[in-house]
Recover the amino acids of this structure.
C-alpha cells in the first residue's frame, strides 16, 4: 500500500533529504569539475584521487559571485573584475561557490543502471553526486602595516568551460597600485612591495547514498513496474540521461564513417544491460564479478602526482583530468 501511494518524486525527495550523506572532497586545483557528475571517491583510501564515472552534459548552474571570510567590500568593475582594498583582505579567504540546479532525481532513477553497467556491486557510498564546487583563494600574510593597493579577481564566468564544467582560469587574480587595475604588478614587483602570494584550493561538495538506499530504490522501482537496471524510468519521467565516461572517452577515438564504431542506442544498451527476468535483484551471485566493486575497469585511472593545492600567485598551469 505504501508503494502504491508514494510517488516517484516523493521517494526521491526522501532519499535525497533524509537518507543522503554530505561529502566534502579536496581535489587538485588543475581539475575540471563537472556539476551533476558522479565521482568515485573511496572513503577508505582518501589518497586516491576521485574518478568520474558518469556525467550529464549541459547541466544548469548558479554562480552568486565572490565572497570573503571578513565581509570585505568589493567593487565590480565594468569589465567584470572585482576589486578589493588590500588592507581589508590580508590573512583572509575569498571563495567562489558554484552550484548545480539539477535535482537528485535523475541520478537516483538511473543509479542502479549505471552501477550494473560498470559491474559495481558494493561500497555504493563511495560514489558521490557533485552538487557544487568551491574555489578558495587564501591571502597569505599577517603584517602590521600592509602595503596600500588593490586585489583584482577575475569574473566568475572565467571559471566556466562549458555550461556545467568549471576550473581555475590561468590568471584568476592580480595586485595593483592603481584603483583602475590598468597597471598589473608582476609577481616579482608585488613580492618586493610586500604583497602576499595566493594559495588556491578546490573542494567538491556532494551527496552519497549507502547500499541500503540503492536496494530500496531497486525494490521501489520494481514495485512500480520498472526495471531498475535500465533507464526506462528516467525516460518515463522525462529526465535527461546520464552517460558513462568510459563510452564518452572511447568515442573520442572513433571513425565517424565506420558504423561499427557507434555506441549502442539507449534502448540497445538497456536491453544488453538488463536480462533480469531470471535474476534475484539482491543476489550478488547474479552480478558479474570483479576483484573490487569500487574499481570498475571503466573507472580506472592513474593517480595524479600533483598536490591537491598550489601557490597560484598569478597563473595556474598543467591542467589534469576532468572530474
Amino acid at each position: 500500500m505504501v508503494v502504491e501511494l508514494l510517488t516517484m518524486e516523493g521517494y526521491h525527495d526522501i532519499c535525497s533529504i533524509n537518507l543522503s550523506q554530505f561529502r566534502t572532497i579536496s581535489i587538485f586545483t588543475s581539475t575540471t569539475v563537472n556539476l551533476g557528475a558522479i565521482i568515485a571517491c573511496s572513503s577508505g583510501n582518501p589518497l586516491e584521487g576521485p574518478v568520474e564515472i558518469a556525467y550529464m552534459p549541459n547541466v544548469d548552474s548558479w554562480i552568486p559571485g565572490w565572497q570573503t571570510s571578513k565581509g570585505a567590500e568589493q567593487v565590480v568593475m565594468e569589465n567584470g573584475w572585482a576589486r578589493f582594498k588590500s588592507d581589508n583582505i590580508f590573512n583572509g579567504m575569498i571563495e567562489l561557490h558554484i552550484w548545480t540546479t539539477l535535482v537528485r532525481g535523475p541520478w537516483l532513477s538511473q543509479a542502479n543502471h549505471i552501477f550494473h553497467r560498470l559491474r559495481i556491486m558494493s561500497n555504493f557510498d563511495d560514489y558521490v553526486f557533485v552538487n557544487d564546487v568551491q574555489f578558495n583563494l587564501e591571502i597569505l600574510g599577517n603584517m602590521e602595516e600592509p602595503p596600500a593597493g588593490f586585489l583584482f579577481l577575475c569574473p566568475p564566468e572565467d571559471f566556466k568551460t562549458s555550461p556545467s564544467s568549471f576550473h581555475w582560469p590561468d590568471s584568476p587574480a592580480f595586485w595593483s597600485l592603481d584603483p583602475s587595475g590598468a597597471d598589473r604588478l608582476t609577481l616579482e614587483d608585488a613580492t618586493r612591495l610586500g604583497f602576499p602570494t595566493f594559495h588556491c584550493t578546490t573542494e567538491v561538495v556532494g551527496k552519497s547514498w549507502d547500499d541500503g538506499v540503492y536496494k530500496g530504490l531497486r525494490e521501489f522501482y520494481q514495485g512500480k513496474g520498472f526495471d531498475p537496471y535500465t533507464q526506462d524510468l528516467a525516460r518515463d519521467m522525462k529526465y535527461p540521461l546520464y552517460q558513462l565516461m568510459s563510452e564518452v572517452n572511447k568515442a573520442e577515438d572513433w571513425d565517424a564513417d565506420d558504423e561499427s564504431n557507434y555506441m549502442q542506442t539507449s534502448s540497445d544498451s538497456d536491453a544488453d544491460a538488463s536480462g533480469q527476468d531470471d535474476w534475484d535483484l539482491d543476489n550478488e551471485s547474479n552480478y558479474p564479478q570483479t576483484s573490487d566493486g569500487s574499481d570498475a575497469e571503466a573507472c580506472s585511472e592513474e593517480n595524479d602526482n600533483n598536490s591537491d593545492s598550489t601557490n597560484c600567485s598569478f597563473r595556474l598551469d598543467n591542467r589534469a583530468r576532468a572530474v
Notes: The chain has eight helices and 17 strands. The chain has a mean pLDDT of 79. The chain has one domain: 2-255+264-283+290-311.
